What does this fold into?
Amino acid sequence: MDMQEKAAHVLNRVAGLTLFFWIVKILSTTVGETAADFVAVNLNVGLMGTTLLMGVITVAAIFWNFKFKRYFAPAYWFLIVMMSIEGTLITDILVDDFSVSLISLDIIFSIFMAGGFYLWYRSEGTLSIHEITNDKREAFYWLIVLITFALGTGVGDTVSELINFGYVNSLMLFGGIFAVAGALFYAKVLGAVSAFWIAFIVTRPIGASLGDLLIQAPADGGMGFSAGTINIVFFAIIIAIVAYLTVSKIDVTEGSERR
It folds into this structure.
């Protein structure tokens, strides 16, 4: 075999897909939604101030994650949480401060996501999340992740608020899309890349709908729990799972890189 065609096995730089992946992803999304609102409203930082503050922390989290050149659970999931918060804020500030309609944002972010995938595939020849083995692929991965959080926020708000579908119905709708994407993948109707990113996008409105259902007042269709309580409980679960993943390394996977 020609040495240049030989595949060298290297560690993948992102989390492997386990049940824990989806649990932490959904919980981090809920935390992102409630944490952004808490800082902006309860701490009176304001939407713009919160967006800038969280943006700085997100950039720091990016540098922390990239320095490992491999998947390290605490750095990876901290960046997921921060991108969840920042993605939410980007959409909220465009809607609330710049009066961009939710439908327009859904279209714009969909175009951005398609453009990101196009550039990723043109550059690397693969969109597989199991082959995130160099800086360029990881950069594309996190760019798409940020866009999906912003898109998921817009789509979720469009369904639950603009269409007034309600928190429970939204949770059931997006949960159903998540389940169907998984079923179509296992039935070999949908490819791995498409199934993953569809599921990844809808976990944003799933988490947001769950958060709203828990913290909104009963008169508004919620359960009336305090945002602080939900944040503490969900953060505790996230920290416990990430600690387990860090020790067990069950979601560390190998990719392959052509040399």
In short: The two ends are 12 Å apart (CA to CA). The longest strand covers residues 7-11.
